Every structure is written in C-alpha cells, then in structure tokens.
Task: inverse folding
C-alpha cells in the first residue's frame, strides 16, 4: 500500500497538469501511454506463445493515436490504418518457417497494436466534445475537451474505487444473502458481484454529476452509467485474460505498487470508445 500511495502521489499531479493544459498535451500523454502500453501488451502476447512483431505492433498503436490527434480528418483513415496493419504484419510473418507460427504472429501483432491503439478514442472524445453552455458549473473553468476527458477519467476511477471498496466490505455478506459470490474466477479470482454492483452505482453517480457540471441531461447517466461501468469491468477482465495466458501478475514493474502502464489503462481502453460513441450519438 505504501508503494501504491507513493506512485499515485507521483503520477496524479502530472496527469492533472496535462489535463488542464489540454490540447496537444493530452494527445502527447496518450501517445506516450499507448507506446508503453502496447510494448507491454505485445510482450505479454509473446509470452503467451504468439511470436509477434513487437516493434510493428507498437507502431500500429502509435499510428492510430496520431491519426486520432490530427485535426484534419482523412475519410476512411481508420480503415486504411487497419488494412495497412494487416498487410504489414502478414509480410513480416512470411519469414516464419512454420506457417502456424506465421499465422499466430500475424494475428497477435495486429491484435496487440489495435487493442492498445483504442486508447486513441480518448483523443477522439476530446476532439468531438461539445462546447459547454454558458451557465454550466464547469463553463468558467474548462472547455468541452478537457471537461469530457476529465469525466471519462473520473468515471473509470469511480468504477475501480466503488468495485474495490464495496467488494471488499460487503462481498462475503452479499454472497451469503443472495448466493451471488464471485464471477469469472478463472480470469480474476477476486471479482465479486457486490463489487460489480458497487462499481456500477459509483460510475452512474459520477457520470450524473459530470453531465450536470457540463450542462448536460444528468438523467442520462442512468442509461450510460451501467454501460460505462460494464465496459470498465470488461477492459479489466480482458487484460486479466492476457496476463493469465502469459503467466504473469502484472503487465510490467514500471510503476511500483501498480504494475505497468497497461495495468493502469486497461479499463480506459474499453470505456473511451463507449463514451465517444455516446457523444457522437447524443450530441451530434
């Protein structure tokens, strides 16, 4: 716990500073996180038995983030990037003498690059964020980009915190009363239904406050909150599956007490596209 507290004290202030600076600073931070996270993910995939092209996979992730950060959209650029990734990874896999190794490396490289490249949705979310109407509580403090990225980050933290606290405090008693104890223990042995429900409630409350703060309809949190919470849980379990397959507890030891970068952004990888889609549908 001491290591976790020290790491949080070191990491949170720069994150807050970058968030309030906004613009290219957010894109730069996401680019760094995607580079480190994809390196960890591809190493895990390699440890799981897939002979991936680590360098190419990292480049794929970075390219997706850069594409999201470029102000002028190129029609079909995302599809073009995916097609390029598939082609380049296939060419790189040709050198494998065993076609089965080549196929595994081809699939693993493309998957690893696109998986962490989903972090680019944070940048897309910021670029697509609507303006905050005058009179909204956050109107005088933040613009739409920074406000929505803040809401995104806080919603993920809310799920993690709510799930941990409620699961640890009420998990056993909730299981005894309802018969619902732990779930998907083959991926993560500590996940409880009490924690799941606690995380969903915490996320919904934080999203309601966030929507109110940016002048949006707070009631929509009742619909979006559970979706965001489930996305956060799915992102966490997806990385757990990857680590289980690789036979390791953490994605790396880069952050003392916290594991690696991928351990910190796993939920965000799934939540960012969900919130981005919500913005495009509701505020388009």
Result:
């Amino acid at each position: 716990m001491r290591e976790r507290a020290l790491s949080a004290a070191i990491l949170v202030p720069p994150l807050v500073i970058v968030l309030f600076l906004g613009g290219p600073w957010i894109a730069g931070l996401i680019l760094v996180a995607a580079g480190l996270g994809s390196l960890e993910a591809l190493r895990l995939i390699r440890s799981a038995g897939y002979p991936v092209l680590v360098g190419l996979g990292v480049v794929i992730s970075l390219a997706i983030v850069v594409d999201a950060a470029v102000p002028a959209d190129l029609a079909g650029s995302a599809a073009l990037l995916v097609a390029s990734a598939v082609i380049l990874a296939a060419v790189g896999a040709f050198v494998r003498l065993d076609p089965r190794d080549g196929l595994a490396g081809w699939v693993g490289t493309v998957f690893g690059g696109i998986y962490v490249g989903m972090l680019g949705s944070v940048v897309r979310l910021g670029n697509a964020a609507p303006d905050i109407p005058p009179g909204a509580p956050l109107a005088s403090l933040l613009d739409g980009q920074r406000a929505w990225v803040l809401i995104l980050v806080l919603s993920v933290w809310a799920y993690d915190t709510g799930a941990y606290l409620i699961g640890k405090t009420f998990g056993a008693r909730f299981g005894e009363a309802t018969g619902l104890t732990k779930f998907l223990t083959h991926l993560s042995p500590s996940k409880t239904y009490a924690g799941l429900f606690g995380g969903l409630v915490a996320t919904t409350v934080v999203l309601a406050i966030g929507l109110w703060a940016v002048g949006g309809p707070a009631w929509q949190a009742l619909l979006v909150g559970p979706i965001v919470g489930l996305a956060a849980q799915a992102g966490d379990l997806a990385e757990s599956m990857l680590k289980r397959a690789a036979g390791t507890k953490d994605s790396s030891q880069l952050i003392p007490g916290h594991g690696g970068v991928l351990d910190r952004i796993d939920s965000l990888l799934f939540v960012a596209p969900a919130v981005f889609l919500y913005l495009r549908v509701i505020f388009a």
User: Anything to note?
Assistant: The two ends are 43 Å apart (CA to CA).
